[in-house]
Amino acid sequence: MADGTRAFQGGLTRRGVALLIALGLAAWARSYGAAAGVAPAAGAAAAFALGLTLLGATLVGALSERAGLPRVTGYLLFGLACGPYAADLVSEDMARQLQLVNGLAVALIAFVAGLEIDARDIAPRLGGLARFGAGALGVPLAAVGLLLWAIWPWLPVAPEATGVLRFALAFLATFVVVSFSPTVTVAVIAESRARGPLSETVLAVVVLADLVLIVGFTLAMQLVRTVTGGAEGDVGVGPLVGWEIFGSFAFGSLVGAAFALYVRFVGRELTLALLAVCAAIAVLGARFHFEPLLAALAAGLLLQNVVPTLGARLRTAVERGSLPVLVVFFAAAGASLHLDALLALAPFVAALAAARAAAVWQGGRLGTRWGRLPPTVGGEAWRGLVSQAGVTLGLATIVAAEFPTWGPRLQALVIGLVCVHEVVGPVLFRRALERAGEVGAAAR
């Protein structure tokens, strides 16, 4: 036991020293360039930011994991601490250049979520899960939506909005604020080596609920575009929404089928091929007005359920290739956050986080009765729905990019919520798994 404690402390010390050295060298390089009056070229600045982010954020993520927190929390906090609104090791231009990875990261996150939906496991319990999910998702959507609409004139996002515009903005914000986190759910289950009815129920519900939320988000985005005059041409909202939803699923399915053929007949460099597929979804989706989240989700769904033998190989490829992309994505999100805006939004973050948690709890209780789930499952499952991470940040990033006047302020609010739920959610879910006796069950 003593040897294990010393090894743990030694690991923390080595990582801490490495982090301090990296930050010290970065600060020296920035101050030396400023003192010499030398402005780095765009390429050099981007390389500096990328190197610092990959090294520093990875180290902070490891330290966060050792402290019992998700790695994503460490990535965000590193970006926030080193960003232009704090230590300024990563300037505003550098943070903007790092955001070039956003489209790839959003597609990768959705692709991973699709890989987690196995229709064969869900089908026998689909009725009960659907009823539980209706309560667990419906109550938060209704409660948070009404709250956002009521406090919108005081919310520092777009307080001047009235009438239909106010409804549309609150409608859009509701889907972003309520969204769940399949990635954190999977991470907690994997780290806990959990297996049983509770972990299976939470994983199925959180993934299926996020599918509903992504579709709802697409509808809400199109509504806001129409109300603000951003919709293209004279095409009605119905055809545009149909194109974005059904077209995105069709496009993603074609991409997934093509990737399955590649794996079947070539099968080499799966990590690079997977990243290329996600990049293609992001680029072509933007070009042809498909929703990258839906397209990537459809690709993952097809691969998992039509060619299930590829599941394990693709998960290995995801584990190998996703780390640097997600590190940069989350760190860039933290670095791009206006710290002053986040501090100004702190009361709203606290109020929305409390309201969302209460709504998820009540929704879980209602869903347990509707779905006729055992209290040991339904009564604890709500704890697995508190976390937020990649999908939520991906939705907020899309809003901020498309609506630059008020979108970044909503993004700041959402990142504050993610920071809260990233700390609280995994702890709640881990405790629920312990109470259900499922921790370590996969190893037995």
Short description:
The chain has 444 residues and is mainly α.
What are the salient characteristics of this protein?
444 residues, Na+/H+ antiporter like fold, mainly alpha, disordered N terminus, 19 helices, 79% helix
Question: Your description of this structure?
Answer:
The chain has about 450 residues and is mostly helical. The chain has two domains: about 1-100, no CATH class; about 100-444, Na+/H+ antiporter like fold. The protein is about 80% helix and about 0% strand. The chain contains 19 helices and no strands. It has helices at about 1-35, 40-65, 70-80, 90-100, 100-115, 120, 125-150, 165-180, 180-190, 195-230, 235-265, 270-290, 290-305, 310-335, 340-345, 345-370, 375-380, 390-400, 405-435.
The total domain count is: 2
Q: Which CATH class of the largest domain is shown? A: Mainly Alpha
Query: Main β-sheet, in a few words?
Result: none
* CATH architecture name of the largest domain: Up-down Bundle
Distance between the termini: 22 Å
If you average the pLDDT, what whole number results? 76
* Structural class computed from helices and strand pairing: mainly alpha
Low-confidence stretches: 1-9, 32-43, 233-237
Radius of gyration: 22 Å
Strand content: under 5%
At CATH level 3, the topology of the largest domain is: Na+/H+ antiporter like fold
Spatial shape: globular
Helix content: over 70%
Per DSSP E runs of 2 or more residues, the count of β-strands stands at: 0
Please report the number of helical segments: 19
- How do the helices and strands follow one another from N- to C-terminus? HHHHHHHHHHHHHHHHHHH
